[in-house]
Specification:
Largest sheet: 9 strands, mixed
Distance between the termini: 5 Å
Strand order of the largest sheet: 1-15-13-7-9-11-12-4-14
Order of helices and strands: EEHEEHEEEEHEEHEHHEEEE
CATH class of the largest domain: Alpha Beta
Number of helices: 6
Number of strands: 15
CATH superfamily of the largest domain: Putative cyclase
CATH architecture of the largest domain: 3-Layer(bba) Sandwich
Radius of gyration: 21 Å
Strand content: 15-25%
Number of domains: 2
Helix content: 10-25%
Structural class: alpha/beta
């Protein structure tokens, strides 16, 4: 197998909204700290160097992550929504399909016709259990301060259409599955109904997952690979970080 990393790196100076704050303790600092904690000299460590570490302050929705149904609302399909630790792992593993939507402009909707055209282009029909990955190339702007505004978003009708084919997980290489917040807010102020995070709120009607902040989708073939996207278990979590990886036959 070949492995292709589809995740972004969690790091300081990130321009993603709600980005991390990482503080680090060096090997020398760790030696002094542990020596003081347990009343011995730092020279007790080899070369006087202890075990370095870091502390990360980060939203569960920062970096590459899987959204749980609980993120969308307290109930889904008339039942309490699943938090991330109860998401079935089989929903996060399976054959992947990349739909190239990189021609869509920031603020555009990805429509049902767009999804159908992308599938026709690769001569593929969706199969239940596949993981659908939307390539927008917004991930190439991860270091741009405007990163959160440089993406199209999935129209709720297109979200329903994908889910109608037995899909449980939709991923995107952008800040979120919906359009940029400024575009959604502008439409809302104009009185356009269902303009605020509409594809997220599909998750109140139908149980499904999202992966947000993917990267490297341009390195994948349209089909013929497996996606592994197991989320970290967080008690009552609305999301979980994931090291999303594509497995390709070598």
């Amino acid at each position: 197998m070949r492995f292709i990393d589809l995740s972004v790196t969690i790091r300081n100076q990130s321009f993603e909204p709600g980005g991390p704050e990482i503080t680090r303790m060096t090997h020398a600092e760790a030696a002094r700290k542990r020596a003081a904690d347990f009343d011995f000299l730092p020279t007790g460590f080899p070369d006087g160097l202890g075990l370095s570490h870091e502390r990360v302050n980060l939203s569960a929705h920062g970096g590459t992550h899987v959204d749980a149904p609980l993120h969308y609302g307290p109930f889904c399909e008339g039942k309490p929504s699943k938090s991330i630790e109860f998401v079935p792992l089989e929903w996060c593993y399976g054959p992947g399909v990349v739909l190239d939507l990189s021609h869509k402009k920031p603020g555009d909707y990805i429509t049902v016709d767009d999804v159908k055209a992308a599938l026709d282009k690769i001569k593929h029909q969706l199969v239940p259990g596949e993981l659908v990955l939307l390539r927008t190339d917004a991930s190439k702007h991860f270091d741009n301060p405007q990163f959160g505004n440089l993406q199209p978003g999935l129209h709720p009708d297109a979200c329903h259409w994908i889910l109608d084919h037995g899909i449980r997980l939709i991923g995107i290489d952008a800040w979120g599955l919906d359009r940029p917040p400024r575009d959604m807010a502008a439409d809302h102020k104009k009185g356009i109904p269902n303009s605020l995070w509409p594809s997220h709120f599909v998750g109140r009607e139908r149980e499904y997952l999202q992966i947000e902040r993917l990267s490297n989708l341009e390195a994948l073939p349209p089909t013929g690979f497996t996606v592994v996207a197991f989320p970290v278990k967080i008690e009552e979590g609305t999301a979980g970080w994931s090291r999303v990886v594509a497995l390709l036959p070598d």
